[in-house]
Amino acid sequence: MTKKASVLFVDDEKRVLRSLKALFKPHYNIHITTDGHEALEIVKNNTVHVIVSDQRMPVMTGVELLRQIKQVSPTTMRLLLTGYADLPAIVDSVNDGEIFRYISKPWDNDDIIKIVKKAAQIGQEQAVNTPAPIATSEKQDIELLVIDDDIETYNAVQEIIGQEYTVKWAATLNSAFDILTQGKVMVIISEIHVADEDITLSLKLMKQHHPNIISIVLTHFNDAQSLIALINQGQIFRFLPKPIRKPLLTNSLNAAIQRYRVVQQQPELLIRHSVEEPKPNKMTSGIMTFLNQIKPSQKIQIH
């Protein structure tokens, strides 16, 4: 593509906007504003491939802005840029804004350039080639996997959706991998710590190598930095706190199943789920051995 992508930066600090404009102007068509309402008008009246918004702004927060942007321009890639590790805002950025990346202030120039470049490439491709997602209620043989050593999570999911779909339960990571290698699971509902084991790396690698599997994290865990890593490296679809709130879980399960259906119809949307590669550790090779056993029919490649 020869045309420059359009990027919109929203921040209530003009000095931040000046810095971002100077950094990106040589490569993109840049819009800047300090006002969330003006940002919405810019997106409504222009093709905007990427929006990068601060969180803590007067009148309208970044999460609220990105939530509205998702409605008016679903192909626009949404990034949150903030200097505050505000856990409720980060959770909302996943659940309401469905953001592509979370960027911390102060940013590293090389990192933010790389992130915006990737988002712009996806945004341009989607704006040109991707039709609006097709809503469907068509019955499909969808399996859900609960990964949690607390059976109450399985019971809650089974009660909500078990009459329509097959719900399986794994109380350990190894038993989860055994189920996954059968190649039928489309939605995962997972704790972060299972049987005293941190499984965040597994969730990240799962999304990297099997992007069509939709992940919901349901946990007592409340560390902001770990959640940021799950956004950037795991593209989790929803983050839900424990204790379980049935209405919130019900809405999230239905939304996850609908997202899976849409991705099956339009696999080109999977590029929006591309993730940063997590840093490898001594467990990586063992996890990959299991992930590579997932049947090819369950894989959709991102090009």
TrEMBL record:
SUPFAM superfamilies: CheY-like
Residue stretches spanning the membrane: none
Example GO BP: phosphorelay signal transduction system
Modified sites of kind 4-aspartylphosphate: 54
Keyword Phosphoprotein: yes
Keyword vocabulary terms for this entry: Phosphoprotein
Domain of life of the native organism: Bacteria
Residue span, Response regulatory domain: 6-120, 143-257
Annotated signal peptide: none
Protein name (Swiss-Prot/TrEMBL): Response regulatory domain-containing protein
